[in-house]
TrEMBL record:
It is found in: Cell membrane. This is ABC-type spermidine/putrescine transport system permease subunit II. It comes from Salipiger aestuarii. The chain crosses the membrane at residues 12-32, 62-86, 98-121, 133-154, 175-200, 232-250. It comes from the Bacteria. One of its GO terms (cellular component) is plasma membrane.
Length: 260
């Protein structure tokens, strides 16, 4: 690689870094502005907006509601996705490609179309809008990611280990619990954290299928209707920090398990 190409790649890289992180930095800074309006210059700073967010019952309720939905949808998507991945990986049977394609399809459909389809289908089934409908839609959307992650991990599992367990008298269930499942734990953990964050940040499906109690993204959207204020930046910053902490912890935990 020539010196000119290295300089060009470096410029592209730092331009991308600036494109991603500068808006986030500005969002955090605006959360400390001692004014009801967003904009420069920032003449004085305050932590009142963050203190208010941590004491606001509406925000804390929406946060807890979003966490509950994320946890429930993640549990469902991990159980279903892992089962489908074990069913499909390493097996050849009629209809396998169709099942895999239908499983991956929810991840390929645009969010707005998916949300409208879920809303129509929920109405046909008589499912009331609210927590149950949101959990259902999030779980369906998250299953493809679990399937892809777990299948990738399964493809590296030495078949000789399972064959040895079967030769020693283990039935398929015991072989799965003692050989396959421990091997899949890092992939399942990684997929779980990804689905958890994906569900927590999901706005479109939560908006279309939500009831009277809003999730955190829907609450932020509702507050935007009355104008942008440092309070919204403070809420978004707190959510960003928690998401980043969980993501970093998950990455280190998964790496440690892969080493073990």
């Amino acid at each position: 690689m020539t010196r000119h190409n290295r300089i060009l790649l470096s410029c592209v890289y730092w331009a991308f870094v600036a494109y991603v992180f500068v808006p986030l930095i500005l969002m955090v800074l605006m959360g400390f502005k001692d004014s009801k309006f967003i904009g420069f210059p920032i003449r004085s700073y305050t932590t009142d907006w963050y203190t208010g967010v941590l004491q606001d019952t509406e925000t804390l309720t929406a946060f807890g509601y979003s966490v509950a939905i994320a946890v429930l949808s993640t549990v469902i998507s991990v159980l279903v996705g892992t089962w489908i991945a074990v069913l499909l990986e390493g097996r050849k049977f009629w209809g396998r490609a169709v099942i895999l394609g239908m499983t991956i399809l929810p991840a390929l459909i645009p969010g707005i179309i998916s949300a409208i389809a879920f809303r129509i289908y929920a109405r046909l089934l008589g499912i009331e809008t609210g927590m149950g409908a949101i959990v259902w839609s999030h779980a369906v959307h998250n299953v493809p990611f679990v399937v892809l992650v777990v299948m990738a991990r399964l493809s590296t599992l030495p078949k000789s280990q399972i064959e040895a367990a079967r030769d020693l008298g283990a039935d398929p269930l015991i072989a799965f619990l003692r050989i396959t499942f421990p091997y899949l734990v890092p992939a399942i953990m990684g997929a779980s954290i990804f689905c958890l964050l994906l569900s927590f940040d999901d706005f479109v499906r939560s908006f279309f299928l939500g009831g009277y109690e809003p999730t955190l993204p829907v609450l932020i959207f509702a507050k935007l209707k009355s104008g942008m204020s440092p309070e919204i930046n403070a809420i978004a910053t707190v959510a960003l920090v928690l998401t980043a902490v969980i993501g970093v912890w998950a990455e280190r935990f998964t790496r440690r398990m892969n080493k073990d």
